[in-house]
Amino acid sequence: MSISKTITDFATLAIQAGGWMELDRIYLQNRLLAMIGEETMAPAAPSKVRATSQELLAELVHQAQKNGVVEKNPEQLAIFEAQLMDFLTPPPSVVNAFFAKHYDKSPEEATNYFYELNQRNNYIHSQAAEARQFYTTLTEYGELEIVIQPAVKKTSQQESQQEYPKCELCMENEGYAGRENYPARTNQRIIRMNLDGESWGFHYAPAACYDEQAIISAEKHQPLTFNQATFRRLMRIVEVLPHYFVGAETDLLLSGGENTTHEHYQAGRKEFPLAKAEIVDYFEFADYPLMNAGIVKWPLPVIRLQSPNQEDLVLTGTEILNKWRGYSDAEIQMEAVAPDGTLRHTLMAIARRKELLFELDLVLCDNSPKHRSFEQASFTAKKQLGLMEVMGATVVAAALEETPNWQAAVGQQFLQALTQAAPFEPSASGQAAFKRFIASL
Fold it and tell me: pTM, whole model, 2 decimals?
């Protein structure tokens, strides 16, 4: 394919994406021509595009490198590629309008549109996602998942060393060109969401570890908190996106490199092993007769609440959170507050829809030295367990596949890490202590 044909096809895809019109074709082609260091273009009539956007991108980048207009170092290439793919991405106002138009038909159609846009414009690393491999290992708690993830440079979601943007979850990233040690976001788009009068942004994770991995972050750069408003937002999000789960990390430093300086939630179109785990011991809340409540069979202590009434879950979740924050048990040497006054207890929460029911899983977390290591063993990444791991899935390097019996070994070490992080041990005495907490509610 000639470079003129590549430019013509790329301009066609840009027009089809909805951000440009046919009247803009010459302008688009000339912009692309200049970006890759070309000066003339042979006539090439528009026709059906048979190559993918990624294939056309690769040809444009190759030509730009031949012409010496872009360096070959990964950071400069990423910035250049994002600038090219920005042509295939309508402006934020247009993307939000298209999302709303699709949402009028169904929430699923809206996220399908937005996800496919992020794949076509290469904001989501589609090739890496397609190369992911999933394995399962059977345990007494059901199947745990092991994800073999290709090597992709993942963003750290840490505080920026400069004032702008403050971190990688800020709205100011939308369209940001990137710089050394800070990712390009030229082709990022964010769907605005109104959650109880507050502005939040829905966007996808570039280096996804599971299907349609998404982030919902506050417009304001504010620290992660866990309170009644958290539960209300989670319920609102699964009402708006009923085919997605949404989860909240803890507000204590339990989850390693996750960003606790910018309030956000994780979401996606994925049924994790925790969602499949069953309730093994039911109990009741007298004030909420429509609610099912029980202990889930899981390595970590999980309370599951189900109700057709969202507000019941919000109020009950808040009650459990407040009780757990101050809960101590002398029989197992559990203290809610450290000697220096630091709080040790908090939750992770995962919300989902089950037909007419709203469902909320509350994972009890303890930040005492006995539990806070959360470190997975040598086969898995040296990191503390985050929401994905708590729900029963862990990411490992592809090189492990060459290790004999690696799958069983990783599964057992992952299970051990989950069990070690549990505030209540799986022993009879530990489970009796868990039930003492339930009885205190």
Answer: 0.92
